Amino acid sequence: MLLHRLTQYAARAEADGELPPPYYRPKRIQWILQLNEEGTAADFVDRRPAKGEKPLETTAPYAYRAGTKPPPYLMVDTAQYVLALPKQAPGKPVTERAIEEGRRRRDAYADLLLAWANAAPNDPYATAVRTFVTTGVLHRLQAPQEMTAADNIALMAHDNTWLHLLPSVQDAWAAGVRSRKSGKNAAGLCLVCGKEGELLSTIPESIKSGAIPTAGRGRDAQLVSINASAQGRSGTLQLVNTPVCERCGGRAMAALNLLLTSDTNRRRATNSVTVWWTQEPVDDLFGTLDTPTDAAVARLLQSLNEHPDPATAERIDSNAYYALTLGLNNARAVVLDWLDIPVGRLRNHLGAWFDHHRVYDGWNHSYRYFPLWHLALAAGRWDDKANKYASGSAPKGLEQELLHAALTRAPVPARLLPHLLQRIRADRRIDPPRVALLRLALHPNRKDHQVTAPADRLDSTQLDPGYLCGRVFAILEAIQYAALPDVKATIGDRFFGTAMTAPAAVFKTLRLGANAHLKRLRRDNGAAHTALSRRLAEAFAAFDPHDGIPVLLTTEQQAKFVLGYEQQRAADFAAKAAHKNKDQAAHDAVEAG
Q1: CA distance readout (Å), 568 to 12, 51, 561
Q2: Shortest CA distance to 356 belongs to which of 466, 441, 462, 298?
Q3: Distances in Å between the alpha carbon of 523 and those of 298, 483, 580?
Q4: For 170-226, what is each residue's pLDDT tens digit?
Q5: Calpha distance 568→510 (Å, rounded)
Q6: Beta-strand (E) ranges in 449-533?
Q7: Contact 285, 347 (CB under 8 A)
Q8: Which end of the chain is more exposed for a tag (fewer CB within 10 A), N or C?
Q9: Cα–Cα distance for residue pair 458/566, rounded to 1 Å
Q10: Which of 21, 24, 45 is nearest to 33 (CA)?
């Protein structure tokens, strides 16, 4: 199914002129070797970029090569193949073996050039290349001193024509790769296109090094690799149990590599990459996850409100949406996730994602929505000195799990809630992204559109003891701030962790302290005293008269404690903002009067 969807995308990319020729991929060129018109001489052109300059890049012949005698590429290859420049370990002398291997590779490169030139006897470029090889010009070339064995060298004609982009070169290269990669006289039914044809023994093109983020060494990776009997069904190797024809295998990998280089259809995480595409063109739904603009989120929420049932939304827009997430295990690509759903259902899922995590900003009387990467980062450790979350401190794989939850409307991972609560206690930091994560983690069933999420703002009807404890603690803290605006160590600094886990142990002491603060407020600020004392009494009255304040809170109740605490604070901020605006309006009216 995956290869089939990729070949479909390849057809669309080819029609748009975006698909590279078969077995070509982008390469950076450090040197150009420009032949004269007759092929009797050649000059080097240094194209290494200066600092801050964009490197020269072109699509060039490529096929995965390995083994003891890896073959050359046609027209564009490294200095080790073009000039027999031997590899040299840092600080060590060049070995005879490296020199001999360099000569072998240059001879193979020369033979490949000659084979193409002889197959096109009437081509003037081929005549020059034939002379370049047969008269010994190639073998007499000396590498510039600053050139390294890994530098790519591209052949260019006297009139600045890239030789590797000639149609005859593209055809010759594709034919050569097919002859190497196809199975020995293997023919059969291709599982991708459903047609009889010559089958591949291995996937001819790999995933480019660096395309899949990894903490280890970056290298080319194979999407399908079965080179040990234990890996294959019935002990068979390579693609015996996955019959794919040459055309489908090549085009599928070309499409995948094209997506992996795209800035609009790719999302890179710490140790994975996700690419997405659609059957028919559509607006950038995926990008909204990392750049949630007000307009984009509003459209998704409107779509969710109009069609809350995912099944109904699917029928409204049946255009297919595909997303593939890849990781890396040595030289093998690992499919971490594969999504194949209608666009209408995806809109529903994304709308639910933003609806389920939004946080009310009381001071500005608005809702906040967060990029997915920010939510993942907020699960990490807060660095007080740097005033930011420590990079790499979030649980490994969490960002990918949140991405899956956003795209599929699945629950967030169960490990998130206890980890997040531990981080809140240790960091003593609660901010909107962490509250957003708590709302997601506390949702009882994100897949059921009839089940509501925890309230996104203060819910005075919520009688969960953890939520009530959080509200009470926020009110006690507000009373202290109002009475002692210059206080250095608040009750939040001293008692938050205990109140969050064992509220009964501290609430009696905090209530007595609040009584003293309220007396001060009654003397100095009667309006604040009236509002805060009433708010505190109402919160305490909401507790069950028989159970009272709980001795211990469960993990879920601790999360609701934090939610109640923050939502009470947001409501208080909203009240302050409204009072400030009212006073400002009255002042403006007097000034205008």
Answers
A1: 53, 53, 11
A2: 441
A3: 47, 10, 22
A4: 999 988 887 776 655 578 888 888 898 888 877 777 888 888 988 766 678 877 766
A5: 17
A6: none
A7: yes
A8: C
A9: 9
A10: 45
pLDDT tens, position by position, 255-286: 999 999 888 899 998 889 999 999 888 888 88
Tell me the CA distances in angstroms from 157 to 35, 128, 498, one per residue in order. 5, 8, 77
Angle between helices 432-442 and 416-427 (to 10 degrees): 150
To the question of pTM greater than 0.70 for the whole model, the response is yes
Q: Which residues pair with 335 in a beta bridge?
A: 326
In degrees, rounded to 5, the angle at the alpha carbon of residue 400 between the alpha carbons of residues 396 and 404 is 145
Which of 500, 492, 510 has the alpha carbon at shortest distance from 560?
Answer: 500
The residue behind tokens 């469960």 is 554
**261-282: b (≥16 Cβ within 10 Å) or e:** eeeebbbebbbbbbbbbbbeeb
Q: What is the H or E stretch that residue 34 is in? A: strand 31-35
Q: Cβ(328)–Cβ(283) under 8 Å?
A: no
**Residue type for position 584:** Q
Q: Which two tokens stand for residue 129?
A: 């290349």
- Tokens matching residue 501: 């886990």
Q: At 280, which amino acid appears?
A: E
CA angle, residues 255, 155, 45, in degrees to nearest 5: 115
